[in-house]
Amino acid sequence: MTERSEHDEIFAALERIAHQAPAPDRVVQGLTGRIRVHRQRRALLTIGGATVGAAAAGVPAFFVLRPGTDAGPGPGPAVPSTGPEPSPVSVAPSIGPDPSPAAGNTWAPLLVQPTWLPAGVAEFERLARTGGDPRQLQSWADQEYQNIAQETSGDMDERAKRLAATRFVSIAVTLPRTLDPQRADVPATQGPVSDPRVLGGEANATVNGQPAYRSEPGGPDLAELSWVLNGSLVRVSVSVAAGGSEAAARVAASVVAAQRSGVEVGMSFGWLPERARGLPMELISTVMGAEWAQVIDIFNNDIDGDDPGVRALLSSTKPAVMVDQQPTTVRGRRGVLTDDGYVTVQLADGSWLQIGGRASSEAVRLADKLVIGPPAYRGWSGTR
Amino acid sequence: MTFDEYLRTRVSALLRFAMVVACDAHLAEDVVQDVLVRAHGRWQRIVAMEHPEAYLKRMVVNECLRSRRRTRRTVPLTHDSLDAASPHLPDHAGAYGVRDDLVRRIASLPPKQRAVVALRYYDGRTDAEIAEYLGCREGTVRAHASRALATLRTAMSASTAHGRY
């Protein structure tokens, strides 16, 4: 057989396999739900994957905001009324400073905070970075959302449908690529804030006079509003149950600079492999009911943000662990080493540590050298 | 190109590519959805790249390999599923069985070997490009390709024996 015919034969066989690909329509339809589920993906990555159920987690009373406790847009800019109130009662989030982080812990600042939120939601998740590109995620939701988010089994599409009926708000901050002067491969650097490549689409709204892009990514159950604030792209997402686009407009208009609020995690690295040194760290803190999880991610490739160079997870529940594992001793305790380069061990206080990244050879050293600090501040959770 | 435009015009090609890499329709669907959900969150960055499509394919390959490592699941292709998928393909008696055998051998390759085969023969990538996709050296790519071809040539030799070429 010639090389050409060999090539053709393999290509024909691969084409034959490609013919079995699922229908695009079905995939795109399913995407709607998954984009929504993705909003709480980080919570699933941390608290989920463990055996946390709604019943086990409990339903703390402070998660359920009593109606009538607060109202009005707070100290943020005035918001023009564009229709009926998105929900019967709004809340004015507290934007006071957090306590100073404890020694031995790692902390990163939030960049912005809302001064108005729709009623019935409580904060359950914070993400921020130490250095590097600005990046933030802050999420609020009702109890039902958090219950569903903690489910570890069941059909993803079915969960997405139930999630669509819950109240959910998030504020994300990223650096628009087109505004990053260090990225020479992107045209129109320092472009106008109305640039569709910055906003994600043609400006069709305003936030405090700034051009904004209003959209419904993945379907009508979630409204988003994106605009540029101090060089960063801010995106507010609000579920229809929480008021949709009208509530998104009010939340967006209420956004102000954060006042020394941030994300604190109860650990810090005592050693890092060379490839991870000096890189920004992304901190995540999630609290749902009685369960909590804290993460430090160090990315080796900024754009492929799901491939951390090093990740440390500290949580109240056992994290998901690969099936293929071998016992190892870490921090003087019996743990397991998995071939995805992570070591998992239960600490003396009952919490769990999972740490590693690329190679299992460095995972044990990362774990042994990790400094476990005092319990990190989580007083923001369950509040406005 | 907006994210919606991409979905309308290019998602089919990405699915076919994922199917070739995964050899599992359910996994291909999961992987493409996962990749698109992640891509949606940073679409502006991806679309600003010189070759956004290549980047998405790299995400697909990596996600396929990661998923395989996590689940260790393999769903072998069956005659029935092959027939259902391509009833319009011409069949030349013995050649059908040979092609089927080749497909099955591709499906049974270790994931990295199959990824190399998919990238080289379906996507037309060079060894250097494949090495970048997989985060390994070119020599490793060639080693994977060599082992994969040794497996596949058994089936292709049968094809020759059937006088198809």
TrEMBL record, chain A:
Instruction: Quote the biased-composition stretches of kind Pro residues, using this chain's numbering.
Output: 74-87
Which residues lie within the region annotated Disordered?
Answer: 72-102
The residues that cross the membrane are: 43-65
Write out the entry's keywords from A to Z.
Membrane, Transmembrane, Transmembrane helix
By what name is this protein known? Answer: Uncharacterized protein
The protein's organism comes out as Luedemannella flava
The organism's lineage is: Bacteria, Bacillati, Actinomycetota, Actinomycetes, Micromonosporales
UniProtKB/TrEMBL annotation, chain B:
Q: Where is the RNA polymerase sigma-70 region domain?
A: 8-74
Pfam families reported for this sequence: Sigma70_r2, Sigma70_r4_2
Q: InterPro entries this protein is in?
A: RNA_pol_sigma-70-like (IPR039425), RNA_pol_sigma-70_dom (IPR014284), RNA_pol_sigma70_r2 (IPR007627), RNA_pol_sigma70_r4_t2 (IPR013249), RNA_pol_sigma_r2 (IPR013325), RNA_pol_sigma_r3/r4-like (IPR013324), WH-like_DNA-bd_sf (IPR036388)
The UniProt record lists the keyword Transcription: yes
Which keywords does this chain's UniProt record carry? DNA-binding, Sigma factor, Transcription, Transcription regulation
Entry annotated with the keyword Cell membrane = no
Annotated ranges, domain RNA polymerase sigma factor 70 region 4 type: 100-152
- State the NCBIfam families in the record: sigma70-ECF (TIGR02937)
Write down the PANTHER family for this protein, in alphabetical order.
ECF RNA POLYMERASE SIGMA FACTOR SIGM, RNA POLYMERASE ECF-TYPE SIGMA FACTO
Similarity annotation: Belongs to the sigma-70 factor family. ECF subfamily.
Q: What name has this protein been given in UniProt?
A: SigE family RNA polymerase sigma factor
Origin organism of this chain?
Answer: Luedemannella flava
